[in-house]
Please model this.
Amino acid sequence: MAFERWFNRTLNRLWGFVEDRSGMPKWALRPQPEFTFKPSYWTGAFVVNAFLYQVVSGLLLLLYYQPSVNPTYTACGQAVGTLSAAPAAWCSTYYILHSVPMGSLLLSSHLYGAYAMIFLAIVHFYRGYYLGVYKAPREFSWMVGTLLLLATLGMGFTGYLLPYTQLASNATNVGLVLALRLPYAGPLLGPFILADGTSQGLLSRMFAAHVLLIPLALGALLYAHIALFESHGIAPPATSDPTQRRRFTHAEDKKNVPFMPHIFFYMTKWALLYVGLLLGIAALWPWELPTYVGNLAATGVVTEPDWYFLWTFKLVDFQGVTPVLAVGITNVILLFILFLPFLDRSKRTHPRDRPVFLILGNCLMGFFLMLSVWGGLTPGVQISPDQVALRLVPIFVVNAVVVALFYWRYKRNYLHRLAAAGKAEVRPGAYPLPTSPAVSAAPALSAATPDGGPRD
Ligand code: HEM
Model:
C-alpha cells in the first residue's frame, strides 16, 4: 500500500515535470469527453496508425527495391538460383522475399497493411456517413477526408505495379486507359503519368508517385484534416434532436479528458494490437510473388486489380458501358460523396431521421460489394444488361422498401408517444426523442443553441 502510494506520487510528479517543461498542454490535441473512449470514435486514428506503419515499412523496403525494368540485378540471379532474365524491379522484390532477413515479413505486412489502411478508411468514411458527422460545422473535414480517401486509393494503384508482375502490369494498363479518359484531366495527366511512353518511364513515374508525391499530398491533407478536427472537436453522438449543439467550447474542454497522456496511451494500445495482428497474419500467410512482366513461359495470366478496384473493372465488363461512361459513373459517385454535406441539409444526424440518405448509402455499399464479388468471381467476363438488372435492381428495391417500412414505423411510434404524453403538435422539423445515455454524459451539449458556439 505504502509502496503504491509512493509509486503513484512519484509518477505524478514525474509527469508534472514533463508536462511543464515540454509545454505539452499547449501543443497536444484538445481534451475529449469521457464517452469517446470507444474504438468507434477513433476510426480515423486507426487509419493514421495504419499510414504510419506503411511509411516505416515502406522506407525499409526502399533499402532493397530497385525501380528498373532492366534485367541487371545480380542479386536476383543468386536468389533465384539461375541467371534470371527478369526485370530488376521484380528481381529485387523476389530478393526481399527470399533472401533478406525477415524480408518476407516486411513486404507481406506492407502489402496487407495497405489493404488494412484502405479498409479502415472505408470504415471511417461509412461511419461518418451513417452518423452524419459531415454536418455543420464539419463540412470541410468531410471534403478533405474525401481527398484523403482518393490519395489512399492512389497509393494502392501506384504501389500495385512496383513488383512488376505481369498481373499488375495488365491491370495497371486497364486502370490507366480509364484514368486517361477523364474529361479535361485525362489529356493533362497523360504525359505526366506515361513519361516518355516506355515501360521504364511508366515504372519510374509510378515509383515517384508512390514513394514521394502521394505520401507528401497525403501528409499535407492529413495535417489539414487533423487541424480541422482540432478546431471543431469531436462530433457528438448522432441524435434526433435538431437543436443539439455540434461543438464543444474550449471552456467545456477543461472538464474533459486530456489528450496527453490518456487518449494517447489509449490509441497506443490499439496501435500495438494492430501491428501485432498485421505481423501475425503476414507471418502465417506470406505473400507469393506472381510471375514477372515478359515471362514468355507464363501463360494464362489474368487481368485483375487488387480487391479495392475490382468494382471498376466489373463496371467496364457491363455491355454498353464504355470506358468513358465508367469514368462518368465513378465521377458522379465521387462528386456525390464530396458535396454530401451540402446535399443533406437536415439538422438531424441520426440515420433513422435521414431515410433518403440511408437508402443511398446502403445502395452505394450494395453496389460496391456486389460488383467487387462479381469482379473477383468472373474477371473480364462480359455481362448483359438483363443480368445487371437481375442482380442490382433487387438489392436497391429491397433496401428502399425495408428502410421505408422502418421509417414509417419509427415515425408512427413517435407520434403515438407524443400523443400519450399529451403533446398534440409536432414542431416543424423537430421530434426530439429521449436522448441517449452517451448524450446525457455530455451535459454541456444538451444546453442547446442551434449551431454550436465558437471557440472561446
Ligand atoms: C487516409 C484517410 C483518413 C485519415 C487518416 C483520417 C483521419 C482522421 C482522424 C484522425 C480523425 C479524428 C477522429 C477519428 O479518429 O475518427 C478524423 C475525423 C474525421 N474524418 Fe477522417 N480520415 C481519413 C479519411 C476520411 C474520409 C474518407 C472522410 C469522409 C469522406 C473523413 C471524414 C472525417 C470527418 C467528418 C471527421 C470528424 C469526425 C468527428 O469529429 O467525429 N475522413 N479523420
Remarks:
- The pocket of protoporphyrin IX containing FE is lined by residues 42-45, 47-48, 51, 121, 124-125, 128, 133-134, 138, 141-142, 145-146, 148-149, 152, 222, 225-226, 229, 234-235 (CB under 6 Å).
- The radius of gyration is 26 Å.
